[in-house]
Hints:
CATH superfamily of the largest domain in chain A: Chorismate lyase-like
Oligomer: homodimer
Radius of gyration of chain A: 24 Å
Number of helices of chain A: 9
CATH architecture of the largest domain in chain A: 3-Layer(aba) Sandwich
Distance between the termini of chain A: 64 Å
Number of strands of chain A: 10
Helix content of chain A: 25-40%
Amino acid sequence: MALPSGLLGALDPTSDRAVFRQIADQIREAIDKGRFKEGAKLPSEAELVEHFGVSRMTVRNSISQLQGEGLVSSEHGKGVFVRPRPPVRRLASDRFARRHREQGKAAFTVEAEAAGSRPEVDSLEVKEERASQDISARLGSVRKVLSRRRRYLLDGRPVEFATSYLPLDLARGTQIAEPNPGPGGIYARLEELGRHLDHFDEEVQARMPSQEETKTLRLAAGVPVIHLVRTAYDSEGRAVEVCDTVMAADAYVLAYQLPAN
Amino acid sequence: MALPSGLLGALDPTSDRAVFRQIADQIREAIDKGRFKEGAKLPSEAELVEHFGVSRMTVRNSISQLQGEGLVSSEHGKGVFVRPRPPVRRLASDRFARRHREQGKAAFTVEAEAAGSRPEVDSLEVKEERASQDISARLGSVRKVLSRRRRYLLDGRPVEFATSYLPLDLARGTQIAEPNPGPGGIYARLEELGRHLDHFDEEVQARMPSQEETKTLRLAAGVPVIHLVRTAYDSEGRAVEVCDTVMAADAYVLAYQLPAN
DNA sequence: GACGCCTAGTCGTCTAGATGAGTTCCACCA
DNA sequence: TGGTGGAACTCATCTAGACGACTAGGCGTC
């Protein structure tokens, strides 16, 4: 039952700092210093109670603190574990370049397989609907849109879900309205429709997930999401697609290249 | 003491869902539906205890749930409030374009004043130090660097802090090593030194803040940070600066433009 | 009017205990 | 051999109460 000595220190009873914060500090430091490795099990609540001589609620308070920081996650009946850092997927700013599209495969699939992961696309849903105010504004006062909703998984883990919106009069009746848009994806189809793509605008924000997002992406406590809204413009400056994406922040790093002039 | 009726519903005792989650759901829904507006005070813990007929710890558990989601923040002695959404600063991908630099003022200052905010720069610290492994790799195997550390505030609120690293043999003895690098900032000085800037690489990640970041940025619970690492390259492809930035995620939206070819 | 004190209301921290539920493993029995 | 039941351990939820500390407003004193 007793804790291996040296793993965790003692409390400072003279400190102003709340006891549960001191305990969280101790555990955090032990993780930082590698005394608890990624994926390792923390001492059980009972062991921590004994070690620090406090009540169980205080220990739980400490752990819930660390959970909120995304450092640990608890599993009912098993224990509390140092949260492993999943491999991140790097999204380069040229990922929608035409030269990649011409290969004919979806960007997500190609990239994932190159990284040795098993990609999946999920819950595909294609609908015709009224544009929300925001989408309408981004598409240039379009009323009705075709929406394409899907979820992406890597090795069975959901990492991202996205909804594309296209003006209905552009997409209706084309392969874009089919579940499978064909080789090169909807951007290839848009170009075949004579909409030569010129550039994309991306807006990036980070925030904590909603309840629904937590569920859809199976997020652990303390994992934010990246919310990315991309608008595609054709060579005449018309917006042809808006893609609204929510990503598990611990699975991604976004890379952009900016010109200096 | 009693709660205005209609604000919050009742619990479902037959539900599997934990009581504290049901209470959090009720409050979340009330916020979503606008029954509690931004900045409004939630019912006190005592009122919620009475309304739902549960113990105080259960109510506190609900509230701490909502805090973790970034929905509310509590103020000791005052109450729990719906977290107001602060105005966000939009960072455009051309913010380092030469044409802006030539105005002579710092980008942060110009932008903030244009938006009607009061900008401040803080805790400026210039040091010579050994490069960390990561910084060294990004700068191309540079051992010693000049580091410039500073914090940015808008209307007194810290929103971002950043550290720039430059190869020491490039920056030493120049105005870059001075606290005030002069008009146009260090990028202008680099160009005067013959390092014509070609492009920047930016890497964006989001995560929960460390203890220190929470303190430096005075972050509320449930606010993630955006971690941005920018590398500046000159026209000969040499990395001349790495800037490591941590931003309060609720204060920013990043905007990028990507070419389609 | 300015200041300080007091008080009621608020959240923060901590204790001690009860019950529930998921996981693991092993001894026992068929 | 193989399955089953249970013990022991884990975290999850909830209760009831105590004390501390911060805030705001009222009130009296100077």
